[in-house]
Design goal:
Number of domains of chain B: 1
Strand order of the largest sheet of chain B: 8-7-6-5-4-3-10-9
CATH topology of the largest domain in chain A: TIM Barrel
CATH topology of chain B: TIM Barrel
Oligomer: heterodimer
Largest sheet of chain B: 8 strands, parallel
Shape of chain A: flat
CATH superfamily of the largest domain in chain A: Dihydropteroate synthase-like
Largest sheet of chain A: 8 strands, parallel, barrel
CATH class of the largest domain in chain A: Alpha Beta
CATH architecture of chain B: Alpha-Beta Barrel
CATH superfamily of chain B: Dihydropteroate synthase-like
Structural class of chain A: alpha/beta
Distance between the termini of chain B: 28 Å
């Protein structure tokens, strides 16, 4: 919550000494409020005033760093409850669960299934980021399993409520910058000491929101502000309510105590039921889960969930784009026709989906159109006969594809004449207005 | 210091009732933001519908779906199976066979099919057209008359045809109608305004805001619904307070994740499992964003989504 200009003015010495290079203290305060200059530009600002300013400008939700090296992530730091209010900044993470009680073969199988999920979707690598390790009373075994999790190249999330065992397990894996879950109203002091010594983010749980709130306050008073809040596993209803209440309190009601990312264990909420876990993962992706853990994640779960997350965490002010280029679909080769659309991800997905459905092999051409839809790109001058001709030349489509039939989106039929002049050895065909009509259209073109 | 829970009381939204007598189902009427049942005593939970078409599913790679309709030879028998599925609140019959680009069944044939279906259906009925504008208008006119008194929900009227469809279904025969707009809050509101100006009561209008499968531009669906619900609940916008219905199945079963066979994509694994998860994840995301009713296809998705809604109450 930012201070207003007048609030800042009250913190200044009000002497108009001009040492900050501003004509008056009032002008200085107004510029600070707008973010143009820093409060520290005033040499007479008292320490108390600086403190007050720091706490007033602190973001409502902290950004927490977890993991190390290539698997380092940021969680939290959100400023709005819904993406259309501005944008969501740090996307949630997904993880699978293993436990020290599981036999080695089962652990290997779970980790192998997880590492198989590794693919690219609209320019982003899709994979499972976290492995949750439930420790047991055997510190050596727990550490052994935790090491396996680290070896899989993912961020380990330990669950251990015994400070001694937690200390010894963390000793084995602390370079991985893990999350340590298990602090509660009873053990928070000892757990805090263990987490701080290993520089691990501490996961806090409570019997209810009151207890959780109390424990977080105590941990903050003890100087720990690297926390993650467990939404609990009493019931599905309870966990969802907690996730919403925590985030809403932080962002809407200015309750800084709850201004931390959350962790949701779906394996505990719907054990053995992967369909319900996937449905819950979907809800928590939209509503305030930061680390979302499932028993297992196979392709059936990854494909929809990663797609959803990629959608939700796009900035509403910027369109999602695909890389310009030549995309052969349905086993297309140099003798297949060419279809053209724009690099707006939604257009690409709808058009490529319809081409696939038609079962006609097509070379889909995606020029750089500024990430706009067909009509918008055309209106903005980003999709023109010359930009298309330039694309064909740059990507050497002339030589790569022998079939010189180019299907143009129906909405830019107006480009046909110009394009024929610019690409004399191509046959320009005007396609349908809507992607949905492509199946029928393509069935007639051959 | 304990956590202070702020009271959040909102006015309940309008509900639309479909079906008759004891079997009637109310869609909408919520008094909380989507799924926030912990904020207030619940007035009405979201409803789950199952869709089927007059032509049978191609269930070659979907053994669980095939099993749900096992032994059902006629449309009436399949409708009875659908109505008895676990978790189903209403049945949506999609008259795919009417498509002029497909089987092109005549309006009379479709009326006969719909009457058989309605007679066999033990749950409220919702009827969707074949997405051919001219045909759907003719179809809905005839069906509204043939199904008089059964309080059917027709999917959907658009800005181009709301006058004919609205008049034929609601004004002439007292059915309910969904107004379809394409993922845009302003278009949705405009259509509601136009339909109410035509004399269609608010209580007879459902909003079909359009849909998408997750991963396929779902952010537009989600943000549109977020904004519609915020306007309806927090700004008391009467022209956006109609319940929202979303055809999830038609979106999710048309993307490659739910269509590519295991032979084509061996690493993706079992096709049916992929289809179920695609449908379930999309349905859950729609409910969290604001759908008051979702229309699904697979019995496992229907069961799990209905159970999840119950668990959240």
């Amino acid at each position: 919550m930012a201070l207003k200009g007048l609030d800042i003015f009250k913190l200044t010495p009000k002497t108009n000494c001009k040492e900050c290079n501003q004509p008056t203290c009032m002008a200085f305060a107004m510029k600070v409020a707008s973010g143009a200059i820093a409060l520290t530009d005033c040499p007479h600002m008292s320490a108390a005033a600086l403190d007050k300013f720091a706490s007033a400008t602190e973001p409502p939700m902290k950004t927490i760093d977890i993991g190390a090296g290539e698997c380092a992530y940021k969680l939290g730091g959100e400023t709005v409850l819904l993406r259309h209010d501005k944008t969501l900044v740090n996307s949630n993470l997904y993880g699978i669960c293993i436990s020290a009680d599981m036999p080695d073969a089962a652990i290997e199988a779970a980790l192998t299934e997880m590492t198989k999920i590794d693919y690219e979707r609209i320019g982003k690598r899709m994979y499972v980021e976290c492995v949750y390790v439930k420790c047991n009373s055997d510190a050596v075994r727990s550490a052994e399993v935790a090491v396996k999790a680290v070896a899989s190249g993912r961020v380990p999330v330990l669950d251990c409520a015994d400070p001694d065992i937690a200390k010894s397990v963390l000793g084995a894996i602390k370079e991985a910058k893990p999350v340590l879950c298990g602090a509660n109203a009873a053990n928070w002091e000892a757990m805090n000491a263990v987490a701080k010594a290993a520089d691990a983010v501490l996961g806090v749980s409570g019997a209810d929101l009151n207890e959780l709130h109390d424990t977080v306050e105590k941990l903050e008073a003890a100087g720990n502000k690297k926390l993650i809040l467990d939404v609990g596993s009493v019931s599905i209803k309870d966990a969802f309510a907690n996730a919403v209440e925590i985030r809403r309190a932080a962002l809407k009601d200015g309750d800084r105590t709850f201004g931390y990312p959350s962790i949701v264990n779906l394996a505990a909420l719907a054990p053995g039921d992967l369909v319900t876990q996937a449905a819950l993962a979907s809800i928590f992706t939209l509503r305030y889960g930061s680390i979302i853990l499932m028993e297992r994640i196979g392709y059936a779960e990854a494909l929809p969930l990663f797609g959803l997350r990629q959608n939700i965490y796009t900035d509403p002010q910027k369109p999602m784009r695909v890389t310009p280029g030549l995309y052969p679909i349905g086993g297309a080769n140099e003798n297949s026709v060419c279809c053209l659309t724009v690099d707006f991800a939604l257009s690409y997905f709808i058009v490529s989906g319809e081409i696939e459905r038609s079962r006609v092999p097509v070379n889909l051409l995606i020029p750089d159109a500024g990430g706009y839809s067909v009509l918008t790109a055309w209106a903005a001058g980003k999709l023109s006969a010359s930009s298309i001709a330039k694309f064909i030349q740059e990507f050497e489509i002339d030589t790569k594809i022998k079939n010189h039939t180019l299907i143009l989106p129906g909405k830019v039929a107006v480009l046909k004449g110009d394009l024929e002049a610019k690409l004399p050895d191509w046959k320009i065909v005007v396609g349908p207005n809507e992607a949905i009509q492509l199946v029928k259209f393509l069935s007639t073109i051959n | 210091m304990p956590f202070i829970k702020k009271p959040r009381t909102l006015k309940p939204l309008g509900a639309v009732s479909i079906g008759t007598g004891e079997r009637a189902v109310k869609i909408g009427g919520g008094n909380t933001l989507p799924l926030y049942f912990f904020d207030a005593k619940l007035s009405n939970p979201p409803a789950v519908g199952v869709e089927l078409t007059d032509t049978a599913w191609d269930a070659a790679e979907l053994p669980l779906l095939a099993k749900a309709y096992e032994g059902a030879a006629t449309l009436a028998e399949r409708v009875a199976c659908a109505a008895n599925m676990k978790g189903v609140d209403f049945v949506c019959l999609r008259l795919e066979g009417a498509d002029p680009g497909g089987d092109n069944l005549s309006v009379e044939e479709c009326v006969k099919l719909a009457q058989e279906a309605a007679a066999a259906c033990t749950k409220p009925l919702c009827i969707a057209g074949c997405r051919s504008e001219e045909k759907d208008v003719e179809l809905f006119k005839a069906l509204a008359a043939a199904l008089q008194g059964q309080n059917v929900l027709f999917l959907s009227a658009k800005e181009e045809d709301y006058k004919t469809i609205g008049a034929a279904t609601v004004l002439a025969y007292g059915h309910k109608v969904a107004g379809e707009s394409s993922v845009d809050i302003n278009l949705a509101k405009q259509l509601n305004v136009l339909m109410t100006q035509l004399g269609i009561p608010k209580e007879s209008i459902v909003m079909n805001l359009g849909g998408a499968a997750v991963g396929y531009g779902f952010e537009y669906v989600s943000s549109t619904m977020d904004r519609v619900k915020a306007a309806a609940l927090e700004q008391d916008d009467a022209m956006l307070q109609m319940p929202v219905i979303t055809q999830v199945a038609t979106e999710t079963w048309a993307v490659k994740e739910s269509m590519a066979s295991q032979a084509d994509m061996p690493e993706w694994g079992d096709l049916e499992q992929r289809g179920i998860q695609m449908e379930t994840v999309t349905a859950a995301a729609c409910l969290a964003s604001g759908s008051d009713a979702v229309i699904l296809r697979h019995p496992v998705a229907v069961d799990k989504i209905a159970a999840l809604v119950a668990a959240l109450i």
